[in-house]
Amino acid sequence: MSELPSGWVSTTIGEINDYSSGNIDPLKAPAQVFELYSVPVYPTGKPEHLLGQDIGSTKQCVEPGDVLLCKINPRINRVWMVGPKSELPQIGSSEWVVIRQPLIHSGFLRYQLSESSFRDKLCSEVSGVGGSLTRAQPKKVATYPVVLPPFAEQTRIAAKLDELLAQVDTLKARIDGIPALLKRFRQSVLAAAVSGRLTEEWRAQNFGCVDEGGPITEPASSSLPVGWSSKTAGDICGFITKGTTPSKEKMTAGHGEVPYIKVYNLTFTGALDFSIDPTFVDSSTHSTDLKRSIVKPGDVLMNIVGPPLGKVSIVPATYPEWNINQAIARFRAGDEISAAYLALCLRTEEVLSHAVSRAKATAGQFNLTLEICRELPLPVPPAEEQTEIVRRVEQLFAFADQLEAKVASAKSRIDHLTQSILAKAFRGELVPQDPNDEPASVLLERIQAQRAAAPKAKRGRKASV
Fold first, then answer.
1. Which biological process annotations from GO are given for this protein (predicted)?
2. pLDDT one-digit tens code per residue, 363-391
3. CATH architecture observed for domain 229-380
4. Helix, strand or coil, per DSSP, at residue 253
5. Each residue's pLDDT tens digit, 70-96
6. Backbone phi, psi, residue 423, to 5°
7. Residues 122, 124, 126, CA angle at the centre, nearest 5°?
8. N or C: which end of the chain has fewer CB within 10 A?
């Protein structure tokens, strides 16, 4: 910060930190219950209560109001504050840098150490061999600058941040819940589509028939609309087959003659995504070793090994022929059903549940046989209605996609909002300043005087339990 607000001062963490290392070995008190502030449980917001015999290493003694700064990647962005005094001994992981200063508002300090400029500096000066083994060095952290407003202003800033960031968290939770709602919406649309409810009014207008069927949640095989029939995939599709996997030397990455589709290229939306690690085989392998698994534009593909099951994609016309691996089944729509409508049916919860209930499960993996694929139940409307169903589903899904994009954009803005609020707070722009507040320079002098008068603690001393 180039210019501090009136009454503020700049100092370093080392100049204000009264914490002196005090270690404790909980194993020496196996029956004692400890309140442990460990790095892994930080997301819960609550310390663990553990017996000493269940704590496997030496810990640090901490006190209420201590600010805990994680020094190890990938959790280096975690800043915690020790809660009110407990009846249990309060201890913390050795992966925290502990900052203690009773004359500074702990909440204010915790928020300042969470602000992006401090985080960037901390992360830029880690050391170690890389990845999760890199750590911030406490001696360096002690030299990092912090700003101090008057104590009364610290209190006002911390209270305002508590209020605003709680609102941001509420907003985040609501935004985070929308994708699940959209997933349920899409499944509701598919259920309505294959039950006939989605086109009920359309049938009445075009054919003058009104159905008396049950609700859209009923199985597609019951109460089918007039003109619909219940079929199996084997009844209305051409030969249903699955893919083959050639030896590694016969596959090339990124380029080649015939595209080779793997499960990760299938999606839950009906589209094929061949931009993900595209793989190819040569024409000779395609027409000989993999002849059984040749697929063409318009074929419908479904993964038969999971979890997750339920990936369904229509082969596009980008290439005249494609090939597939052994974890994918090919459905070729016959005269009674369109590829687009078939793909919708295969994506419904009813078809997926039918398949899973009959799948072979081994070590948590589901495998669908071709026999299961051929017996999948499909409600088949007249061709004209299939076209209308597909049109309406695509329209509703496009609406859901637009909403999903807006949600992603809103989530990005909300994710930046927290840091914007923090930055504003530490520029002195979040709360009004009061000229009657005791200047922070006086506070800093008091801290320095108390630290100078305090006896020097012996470093590394282990506390008694």
1. DNA restriction-modification system
2. 788 899 999 999 999 999 999 999 999 99
3. Alpha-Beta Complex (3.90)
4. strand
5. 999 888 889 999 999 989 999 999 999
6. -60, -40
7. 70
8. N
